[in-house]
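So, who can interpret the following?
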Amino acid sequence: MGSLLKQIINNEAKITGIEHPLPLFHDYLKQGYYPFRHENEINIRLGQIIVQTLETDIPQYANLNVGTSRKLKRLLSIIAESVPFKPNFSKISEMINVSRNSLDNYFSYMEKAGLISQLRDQTNGIRGLGKVDKVYLNNTNIIYNLVGENANLGNIRETFFLNQMSVNNEIISSNTADFVIDDYTFEVCGRNKKQHQLSKDGRSFVIKDDIEYGYLNVIPLWAFGLNY
């Protein structure tokens, strides 16, 4: 486990000079991920980037025909409307009229382009090669751009955690909570969520939104942004 993650789960993560991080954190979730956040009409700019990625960048990179962009847009829309998306590949193949192999490729292209993230399980004990358990949009700014204020808070929280922690850690899905990093289990939730389902073994943690400071095995969600 990296030293940054160890500091976070020990509730030692701090931002120098900032006593109340939540307002800044909530602002970041909506418009802080990209370097042009201070420009006017940020949602228009981000929307243009998403469209260009689907219509031009991916088709050119993968040598796909122009009609593929419509299927990519439809696939992204399906993911954006879910909370989060548990893929049924056979059903999706029928919905957008592509083969299963092509659909796998579409997911891979969109992940490489920074539009989505795929969370896998630990099938066959080999991390990174497991079955895709859930599919998320890559970051919370994309969620708000595509869904707006109707964005599901649970999805926002999980997406932020996965986005930030996958930079320096390998993450797989958990049978008892949301995520596993190394041998540590993480349940991501709101401030009022109980933790009955997690064992108190020193390796299971509750990640809560809307709290500024942690205690015992409860850690504020914003702190995981310091891992990025």
